[in-house]
Specification:
2 helices; mainly alpha
Length: 72
């Protein structure tokens, strides 16, 4: 009886561990995509404040985000 209980506990623990770790990359990628939307909206708002939105080809939703590191 004790051996079956130990196998059951180990099996349940393993399943919980695997399920808990398998979703982590999906969550990280989702938050990264959401942050790009915030960046696009902020950039479009800046263009709108400066009156430069006429120079843009489309709206901010179709914009491409590039990461640029500048040396100071």
């Amino acid at each position: 009886m004790k051996v079956k209980f130990v196998y059951l506990v180990l099996t349940v623990f393993s399943i919980i561990l695997i399920a808990g770790c398998s979703n982590k990359p999906v969550i990280e990628n989702t938050s990264e995509i959401d942050s790009h939307e915030d960046v696009k909206a902020a950039a479009w708002e800046f263009l709108d404040e400066k009156g430069w939105q006429d120079q843009a080809k489309d709206d901010f939703e179709s914009a491409k985000v590039e990461k640029v590191n500048a040396d100071s």
